TrEMBL record:
The lineage of its organism: Archaea, Methanobacteriati, Methanobacteriota, Thermococci, Thermococcales. This is Uncharacterized protein. It comes from the Archaea. Residues 385-441 form the NfeD-like C-terminal domain. The keyword Nucleus does not apply. The keyword Transmembrane helix applies. The chain crosses the membrane at residues 244-265, 285-305, 312-332, 352-373. Keywords: Membrane, Transmembrane, Transmembrane helix.
Amino acid sequence: MRPRLALIALLLAVLILQQGVSGKENVVYVARVDGMITGYTVDQFDRYISEAERANASAIIIELNTPGGRGDAMQEIVTRIQNAKVPVIIYVHPSGGMAASAGTYIALSSHLIAMTPGTVIGACRPILGYSTNGSIVEAPPKITNFYVAYIRELARVSGRNETLAEEFITEDRSVTPEEALKYGVIEVIASDVEELLQKADGMETKVPVAGKGKVTLHLRDAELMYIEPSFRDTVVKYITDPTIAYLLLNLGFIGLIFGFLTPGWHVPETVGAIMLVLGLLGLGYFGYESAGLLLVVLAMIFFIAEALTPTFGLFTVAGVVTFVIGGILLFSGTGAGGEYLVTSETYSVLRIAILVMAILLGLFFLFGAATVVRAHRKKPEAGKEELIGEVGKVVEDVDPEGVVKLRGELWKAESRDGRRIPVGEKVKVVEVRGLTLIVEKVDGVKEGE
């Protein structure tokens, strides 16, 4: 009897273990990075990879389409990929896309590279920028040699073609997916993500995964989880376009100059300041948090300007708009919804709080501005000027000088038209000269009234 019970217990244990194994999901995350490589792109890569790490995903596929960008941002992304706790697959996609310049370094640092037919990779020669006539400003040999060594090392560590990697810089060479696969730069050519999963299944990562070493990928029939770009990511994608950023900077400067030349209107300098800040953000030197903080500071400047120089709402509206945008960028982070610093649930509530706070600040400064306007329009309540228009009583004949009693005080007075005003008559102050009141008789007012 006991052996039978032991057998049943063993079978139950096996069934429980099988259920546990089958219940473990094979999840692959898919994200997209499109546009220039900037400080914002660093935040995007960190967000996407962190999301996959928290879910203990089998891998994360990042669809990359970029003409290149900032070298310092690229190096931060490379470091993040090499320290990822899940395999990072760079997928050059869609057809017609590219992984050029900084994008090539990022691809070579990944655990696996895939390309869609019709894409290209390469052309990594570093440049310092563009001259006023639009020509490229070449980097000096010192910088070029550094990046040659850098890309060769990325290729060597991942077991990819070092010679071709170097030619991406020295000869500005670019290759198609077929050439890249033939010469050992990439591992997979796939038309879509599903085909990529099938072809990459069973492959070993080209570089070690942090804490795991080289990993054999099990991607067949994996569940796909897409991380969609937020509205914020889409906006940043457009303002980081070099042409748009340059245009915003110039329009911002023009607005400020025009505003200074036409004081009192305030519209040109307000719009110019916003465009100038957006242009600076578009240069890509900022991450989401830094950009958000800068916009919040700009909002505070607008609010203070409204209080000091009331524009009947113009600065307040500009402050509310920049405060809301800045708050959304500032409180971004790595929650399940893809936001930064806070979870998606908290972020949903936080967005409402940001909007309410912006409205309250706007109302506060609008009320303060209205108070200032009323104070400017009100007559002074201190000094001799406040006596003008007051009515007093003659206590010593004003002929043409005398004494009047006003507010319980005795004042030296002088008749405005030089005529005598006898004791007891009511007089009105029309002017103040030093300590002498210039008065005139108030017709129709008798003594004792």
